[in-house]
What we know:
globular, mainly alpha
Amino acid sequence: MATSGSLKSTLAVSLNNYLDAGAIVAGASGVTLWQNYLGLSEMHLGWLNALSANALGAAIGAIIGGFLADKFGRKFIFTYNLLVYMLGVLIIMLAINYPMLLTGFLVTGISVGIGVPASWTYISESSEVNNRGRNICISQMSWGIGPMCILLFGMLFAPGGYLYAPVESLAHAFIGAEASQAAVEVFSSRVVFFTLFVVALVAWNLQRQLQESAEFTASKAKDKSGIVENIKLLFTNKIAVKTVAYLAAIYLTWNLVASVMGFFMPHVYETAGGLSNEKANMLSCVSWVFVVVTTFIISFFVDKVAHRFFYVFGLAAALTAWILIIGGGVSSIMGIWLFTILWGVNNGSSVQVFYALWGSELFPAKFRAGAQGLMFFIVRGLSAAWGLVFTFIYGENGEGFTIAAYCMVALLLISLVVGLIGLPNTRGKSLEQITKERYGENI
Length: 443
């Protein structure tokens, strides 16, 4: 039940991934400026991260948005959710105190979470059988382009950046010539968030014109069950429970590594690698370039070649990167570059690509988005807790870096082994066929 215009709808919906990853990176890249402007403590920053799109904010939104998408439709989410996102970003842009900033991060994070399960579900349901993997890859590319662009904007607009002069002039025009230096400098972060507001506005206009998923429409015509019934079925059907456990396991173990990379990697480059802040941010940006390039290449083959090959390929790159670091690679510029490239390749052929693909294939339409929302809730919630544990292991100045790296290798190995044991055979099959094979006729 796919539409022939799947590429067009995929591009529109994939902007949600840009906004998701963009919000995380925009928050991380400007956090020092907000700290100086508002006089924030480390505890304040910890709460900003915990309630943001990187952690609990998205976790809360996902479990709500998943079941709403199964009850009211995927288009319902697209029609209203990005209005919430724009509100959150607007609050951040106008923030003059910590409660406003925290509220903006929370609202934006909840919106990101609401949009994720509906987006991946819609992409799969609107794709042709032989293009489903490709379209998920396009979505993943957007997830890479977001941080790449936001990091670039952050470097250009930040104090000392090539475009800081017009940002400084704009700040004085809005807040006066007598404004403090910290108030002027944080304006660069406000401008970065404004770019997210513009992209969200464009995405909202595109998405509210989309047609409802034919798969969802057909499912609702046959089954009028409500949210509570679907939740009960999800938790009592043995196949569904096993699938949730499998997908949550492979995505969680990989994401515990990836979430740390996303938020702490510039810090690791600076403390363990001895690089300047500018070079650390540049390397982070380069890594995202490799994400986009790798995913683009894989998109041509993912529907033609066994998924097992790309799954192993991505994790092999990740494991090689961390083993290289354990061997002392972080102390040399060549080692840091190899690590950056390998991690970018891993992200391009990552567990997240297959989690998004399989998560939207392995559940029936009636609770497809809800199951993804539940798993996203588990993964992002535990990733928030892991971020605190990682800082304890890593130490103030990177003294625990080697131990932290061994933890990363162990997590990636678990994701590899568990993934291969339960790897599903869905390539070339319609969603309807997959559902019948797994759940029978009466689900």
